[in-house]
């Protein structure tokens, strides 16, 4: 069967799908962490894989960048491929001095300048929040592995290059931990179509200090976050 953006068979995806923005990060994760791997989607090179992690079947597929892109893939995975849990595993820019590059942040909530969730809620402000079970399982998996995570609010920006003067200072003042581009949209899609979602990000750059990882590091070295997510997935 095929949706407009995914060419795969019913049953090709596991109930839980990890979604990095970068399809090559999806490939790295499949190559590094999964066994018995099958490539299940390559439409637009948005690679999707299904394999086994410690005996559990899980999938990993790129989401592309931004709320419009992840919204398409998340909606089709949920409604056409019976996916129940989507965990975004992304990168983000840190907004606070006490957060370092490579720290892992879990988005308990996601603020945004996108209008998608207002469209869903008759023009009112929608609180885009993580599924509590996925959040708790991920925090527990991190604790068990002795890995630190920060849990809080993130900002899902429509524009990577913001034209709004002082926006990063305003976000930091409101205790927003980091900026990225998908979480609020993913949470809205999951609510609309009845699935569970969580967004977890590794800090790839620091808005205050300017420190930044390169593309190769963003693609291939976020293993702590991936292990937390996969270990959490064993419990749901
Ligand atoms: O690394 P990913 O998961 O793509 O996440 C972040 O990186 C992209 C911008 O460079 C946006 O998609 C943003 O959310
Ligand atoms: O969206 C993003 C992702 C990483 N870093 C940023 O500054 N923004």
From TrEMBL:
Catalytic activity entry: a purine D-ribonucleoside + phosphate = a purine nucleobase + alpha-D-ribose 1-phosphate; a purine 2'-deoxy-D-ribonucleoside + phosphate = a purine nucleobase + 2-deoxy-alpha-D-ribose 1-phosphate; uridine + phosphate = alpha-D-ribose 1-phosphate + uracil
Active site as annotated: 205 (proton donor)
InterPro entries, per database record: DeoD-type (IPR004402), Nucleoside_phosphorylase_CS (IPR018016), Nucleoside_phosphorylase_d (IPR000845), Nucleoside_phosphorylase_sf (IPR035994)
Keywords linked to the UniProt accession: Glycosyltransferase, Transferase
Domain Nucleoside phosphorylase, residue spans: 17-224
E.C. code: 2.4.2.1
Family membership: Belongs to the PNP/UDP phosphorylase family.
Protein name: Purine nucleoside phosphorylase DeoD-type
